[in-house]
Amino acid sequence: MRTDMLIGGEWTAGSGTTFPTLNPATGEVIAEVPDATGADVDAAVRAAAAAFVSPEWGGLLPAARAKLLLRVADLMEEHAEELARLETRDQGQPLGVSAGFSVPNAIEHFRYYAGWVTKITGVTAPLSVPDVDYRTVREPLGVCGLITPWNFPLMILVWKLAPALATGNTVVVKPAEQTPLSTLLLAELIERAGVPAGVVNVVTGGPGTGRALVRHPLVKKISFTGSTAVGREIGAECGRSLKKVSLELGGKAPSVITADADIDAAVSGNLLGGLLNTGQVCAAYTRFYVDRKRHDEFAEKLAAAAGSLRLGDGLDPGTHLGPLVSAEQVELTARYVGIGREEGAELLTGGGRPGGDLAHGFFFEPTVFAGVRQDMRIAREEIFGPVLAVLPYDDPEELAALANDSEYGLAAAIWSRDIGTAGRLARQIKAGTVWINMMQGLDAAAAWGGTKSSGIGREMGWSAIEAYTEVKSVWTSLA
Q: Is 248 a catalytic residue?
């Protein structure tokens, strides 16, 4: 298991100061990881800048770059079990999530963007200027800083890394301090794949490391996934220095259940959509708008299903829900449960920490509130834990307004047997993604990102190619 940082092709402990990364299922220390200094960040950025113009990378033909990305994907597949188990130990997600979703999705992203490498083209356009040939080309930006979150450390890193490399950039990665280990293992596989030294660098540390990366003058772009509060700071900093920036931030996804919906299907889909990765998903379904005539039925069935889920170590194949990532996240979740009770919501199930064998880990019971009002904090603020709020509505005409009454706009869900109703709501709800009659779906070809306080920019698909390139106009006189 790698614990050193990768800077310019060298594995280094940096200054020697470290911090622990914990197994959230037990609270035990897995490893000590370097706490990068400003000098470490500077060295990593300068290594990336040198690699960007090197013949080994900058002069690499597109077909050769595509082969490198495919080789990375192959190595990830060969080490898929190791990656998944490490992700589960460090983050807590059950193996069914890490091995069945996170790692395969990451592998697919490398293969998808390997296919784009030889197909990134510009355009020609007729100009109203005589005797001129005009065309555009897409060029890489340079050094990109990739700052990743702790909820899906490997997968979300690859959402950024694969298109950044496909377009010819070099990168400095700063993983979340809670979950750095799968990033370091991926960096080792990238090195083994033959990606030139300095193209991919990894620095580990906390907020200070991230700030040093954002502020470095040689960094041309920042891609950040994390909280809205931190995203605002990063966006402001990039604005001052005129860096390109992509931000995928918080969410409070509404799930609309109309009167004609299949309630059992809606309960099943919303249970998975709300509690995947113990609710630590930016697009988790967390506020459910249910026709008042069916509110009690939906809430009771949802609570019964949530209460039947088994909590445990993610390495246990019988586990449905793993731990939260940290003690701080447990405290935050407990605080919101207390707020929900104080504001008058009806607690149907959960609401506390389990005891017994799970007492030493960062576990929290899946929690369902019914009779929630729109003005309650549990209906408005992102909790990032296993807390679900069911809100009754009376007038179908108010659904879009209720769903949109939020600072967030990352994702939404609609459950209805009427395709006309579902289609109209999908158009009216302000969100980057809307799923109809299904839990969350993701694909490398489908653009992903938010509106309002959920961020700016898009990842995946062609949108990511645009995010990591800039357009150059070339004029040629034909006279």
A: yes
